[in-house]
TrEMBL record:
A Pfam family that the UniProt record links to this protein: GST_C
Species this chain originates from: Asbolus verrucosus
InterPro entries: Glutathione-S-Trfase_C-like, Glutathione-S-Trfase_C_sf, Glutathione_S-Trfase, Glutathione_S-Trfase_N, GST_C, GST_C_Theta, GST_N_Theta, GST_Theta
Name the UniProt record assigns to this protein: glutathione transferase
GST N-terminal domain span: 1-81
Length: 227
C-alpha cells in the first residue's frame, strides 16, 4: 500500500500516525503541496481524481478521504485495538467524533489557519478584521466544545481509551498554532488531553509534526520582532 501525504496537511499527519502506531505496512509517498504538485492535470489523472492528500494506492485500488482509509486499513488488516476497536459501541463512539469533526474541529481550525496565515503567505493579502474576528469566534466555540462537551466526562474524545479520534482531533488543533493561536491556552482540560495524545503516540507524533513545529517557532520569532 502506498500512502500519498504531506505533513503540512492535518489529515495526512493523522493517517500517517495511525498507520505507523498500528504497524500497518505502507510505502511513504510524500507530495509537496507548497510546490503545487497536487494541482497538475497529470496528478489528478494518474494519482487521484480529487487532487488532494492524503490518499492511498493499494495495488490497483485507489482510495481518498482519510476516515475512509482508516476504516479500509482496519478491516483489511483485521485490526482490533484501542485505536479503532471492533466492538460495536466502542467503534460507534470513535466514528461519532470522526463524523462530527468534519464540520466542527476540522472546519474551524482549518479556516482560521488558512485565512490568518496561509492565504497571506501565498498572496500577500491580509484578511479583513471582521472576517478574521468571525473565524476566531467559530474556532473558539469549537474548541470550547472539545473542552466542555467531548472531554467533559471522559479522558479521551471517544471514551476511557485513546483512539484514532484523538489523533485526528489533535492534528487539527495543532494547525492554528502556525498562525499564532494556541488552542490549549486557557483550556486546562484540552491542554492535558493534548499532552496525553502527544505522549501516547510518540515518537511518531513528533515525527509527523516536525515541520509544523518549525513553522510555529518561526511565527513566534516574527511576532517577537514585530513588538
Amino acid at each position: 500500500m502506498k500512502l500519498y501525504f504531506d505533513f503540512f496537511s492535518q489529515p495526512s499527519r493523522a493517517l500517517y500516525i495511525f498507520l505507523k502506531i498500528n504497524k500497518i505496512p505502507f510505502e511513504p509517498c510524500p507530495v509537496a503541496l507548497q510546490k503545487g504538485e497536487h494541482l497538475t492535470k497529470e496528478f489528478k489523472e494518474k494519482l487521484t481524481r480529487f487532487g488532494k492528500v492524503p490518499f492511498i494506492h493499494d495495488g490497483d485500488f485507489k482510495l481518498a478521504e482519510s476516515v475512509a482509509i482508516v476504516r479500509y486499513a482496519a478491516r483489511k488488516h483485521d485490526l482490533d485495538s484501542k485505536w479503532y476497536p471492533k466492538e460495536l459501541r466502542q467503534q460507534a463512539r470513535v466514528d461519532e467524533y470522526l463524523e462530527w469533526q468534519h464540520n466542527n474541529t476540522r472546519t474551524f481550525c482549518a479556516l482560521y489557519f488558512q485565512k490568518k496565515w496561509l492565504v497571506p503567505m501565498l498572496t500577500g493579502e491580509q484578511p479583513s478584521p471582521d472576517r478574521l474576528k468571525n473565524l476566531e469566534k467559530n474556532l473558539v466555540q469549537g474548541l470550547n466544545e472539545i473542552e466542555n462537551v467531548w472531554l467533559a466526562n471522559s479522558p479521551y474524545l471517544a471514551g476511557d481509551q485513546i483512539s484514532v479520534a484523538d489523533i485526528f482531533g489533535a492534528c487539527e488543533i495543532e494547525q492554528p498554532r502556525i498562525a499564532g493561536f494556541d488552542a490549549a491556552e486557557g483550556r486546562p482540560v484540552l491542554s492535558a488531553w493534548l499532552e496525553k495524545v502527544r505522549k501516547e503516540t510518540g515518537p511518531v507524533y513528533e515525527e509527523a509534526h516536525v515541520s509544523l513545529n518549525k513553522l510555529v517557532q518561526k511565527t513566534k520569532e516574527q511576532a517577537s520582532k514585530a513588538k
